[in-house]
Design brief:
Shape: elongated
Order of helices and strands: HHH
Strand content: under 5%
Structural class: mainly alpha
Distance between the termini: 28 Å
Length: 86
Amino acid sequence: MTPESIVSEPTLDTWENRRRMAYICLVALLVVIQEAIILSILLPAESMTAIMPVITTSLFVLASVISAYMGLATLNDADFWTKKKE
């Protein structure tokens, strides 16, 4: 097995799946924000203080997945992977 056969160019299907994953994370991010707003209205402040670390971590993870997709898509559009350094 040669190294060229192991490393392959990302295909359109790969980017389609990554895009789908980023959109799902975006929808989940919006749902988490909406639920946090609703919970802050319905629950007392003590309960919200206990829930905030979970909400913050969820928002950070979802935003990281979206940012990673955007960054890698930008590098792919700029032909970063195939550009030869002189």
